[in-house]
Amino acid sequence: MKRALDIGIVNQQLSLLENGRILKCYPVSTAKNGPGQLRGSECTPTGRHRIRAKIGAGAPINSVFVGRRPTGEIYGPELAARHPGRDWILSRILWLGGLEPGFNRYGEVDTGWRYIYIHGSPDEWGLDKPESHGCIRMRNADVIELFESIDAGCPVLIHE
């Protein structure tokens, strides 16, 4: 069985595919600045990618990550109030790496070096519209389910 991810920016949807058939669809939130490759643009990169690394296996739901490391904190209303405006990375991280040299790999357009992830976000944040800083945000239970459903190296296509 060959699994892959298909992420649609226009419909704000991530589809888990197996042998080309849709197994499950999840709502997501991509970049409020739209699609784009350039470092510093806060855009979601398009094209062919792969899951470069899976981070957070076994961490409790709502675990807070900074610099791809768990802080030991669990997201909740008190923590949110102490850090307003923070771009929360929660529960799991699926770190993306681009596969297209000059488009989303190497130099100023490298998805991996831009630290673009699929990750959990506060469940109260809406996921039906683009609001991220470039990453693909998911509900926490959804990202944990997805994390357990795929392997590192899994192909990912991001398109409008």
From TrEMBL:
<dbReference type="Pfam" id="PF03734">
    <property type="entry name" value="YkuD"/>
</dbReference>
<keyword id="KW-0133">Cell shape</keyword>
<keyword id="KW-0328">Glycosyltransferase</keyword>
<dbReference type="InterPro" id="IPR005490">
    <property type="entry name" value="LD_TPept_cat_dom"/>
</dbReference>
<keyword id="KW-0378">Hydrolase</keyword>
<keyword id="KW-0808">Transferase</keyword>
<comment type="similarity">
    <text>Belongs to the YkuD family.</text>
</comment>
<dbReference type="InterPro" id="IPR038063">
    <property type="entry name" value="Transpep_catalytic_dom"/>
</dbReference>
<dbReference type="InterPro" id="IPR050979">
    <property type="entry name" value="LD-transpeptidase"/>
</dbReference>
<feature type="domain" description="L,D-TPase catalytic">
    <location>
        <begin position="3"/>
        <end position="159"/>
    </location>
</feature>
<comment type="pathway">
    <text>Cell wall biogenesis; peptidoglycan biosynthesis.</text>
</comment>
<protein>
    <submittedName>
        <fullName>L,D-transpeptidase</fullName>
    </submittedName>
</protein>
<feature type="active site" description="Proton donor/acceptor">
    <location>
        <position position="119"/>
    </location>
</feature>
<feature type="active site" description="Nucleophile">
    <location>
        <position position="135"/>
    </location>
</feature>
<keyword id="KW-0961">Cell wall biogenesis/degradation</keyword>
<keyword id="KW-0573">Peptidoglycan synthesis</keyword>
